[in-house]
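Record 1 of the preview.
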Amino acid sequence: SPEQAARMKKLQEQEKRQKVEFRKRMEQEVSQFIQATGEPRRRFQPMNKIERSILHDVAEVAGLTSFSFGDDEDSRYVMVFKKEFAPSDEELEAYRRGEEWDPARAEERRRLRELAAQQEEAELECSSTPPGPPNDYKDKYRHLIGSDAAKAAARTMEANKAYGCVPVANKRDTRSIEEAMNEIRAKKRLRQAEDE
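->
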């Protein structure tokens, strides 16, 4: 009926007007937020899907980062972040779990993790390299070639123990074959002369 159509049209216009008003209000809030110096992020009240999408759009236009959090539709809310305070994955995870983000606590946790890693590294170094020269070829090169290859390399070195772990090539005679042969012949001649 015509009245129904008129009522529908009135409702649609009202909705449209509400959206426009809501957007204006969000634009004001966002611009206040941008000017608030000590405020890196702002959490907005829970909103419905349409309102959230309007707020996300306003934030994007203003050059801000925004995310929605909250599991059920009624309690979902938007958080807006200034670009230089864009949230880390860790921070986002906290909000997703419904927790408050405490940067000081997170920094402390990060420092503890770093410390633990450093300690572990130090312990590894202490246990694997005794002070002084490495006494075992395997240990010396394990970090370069892995332990299996190191064992194999150590085996080839065992045979060479007399040289004190210097590759054979370094101990090789540097004289040319000709020089060596001449020397052998000379010694031979000397012996023959002595025998006669």
